[in-house]
Amino acid sequence: MPRGKFTNHKGRNRRFTNPEELEEERRREEQKKKWRQQQGDDTSSEDEASGDKKISEEDSGSEEESSSEEEGKAKGVSNLIEIENPNRIQKKSKKLSTLTTTELDSKPQLSRREREEIEKQRAQAHYQKLHAEGKTEQARADLARLAIIKQQREEAKKRREAEQKEKEDAAKLKTAQTQKALGKK
């Protein structure tokens, strides 16, 4: 046993409920509930039934009724003292007939960042359009580079064709000389 006035609870054995025991207890509760439902004796489980009834009543009622009930059931002396809290937002439902068409059709106000982002996207799309048409400096430089590359490729193609033609002519000349040397002409 520890000395002194205070005992330390650290390191002591802890007892956890066995899962089988929990399952057994849950089964017993379900059996009791079924038996009560069969007997029609719900008085012993008033808390459960009344809680279910309250939830169903709140779901069936409209939002206006629930807000009026909350105001009617003020706790303590709060119903005697009227307090106007500027931070408290009271929800006021608007009817569709009272709304003007300008309120319905007006676009939501965008923040500065959102406006800048939209403007940036528009500018990017405009630049891409101009670039595709070849009206930007970068597009002109790209087109000039492309023209130079096409010209170099054409020259290289002509050179290859000329070399190929020379090889063919040389091969024909060689075969003609060998044929002449053999005397088959």
3D architecture notes:
- The protein has 185 residues and is mostly helical.
- It is 64% helix and 0% strand.
- The chain has six helices and no strands.
- The protein has helices spanning 19-39, 46-60, 63-72, 101-105, 112-133, 137-182.
- The longest helix is centred in the C-terminal third of the chain and has 46 residues, at 137-182.
- The radius of gyration is 46 Å and the shape is elongated.
- The chain starts with 18 loop residues before the first helix and ends with a helix.
- Residues 49-68 have low confidence and may be disordered.
How is this fold's topology laid out?
Elements: H1 19-39, H2 46-60, H3 63-72, H4 101-105, H5 112-133, H6 137-182
Q: What are the main properties of this structure?
A:
single chain; 185 residues; mainly alpha
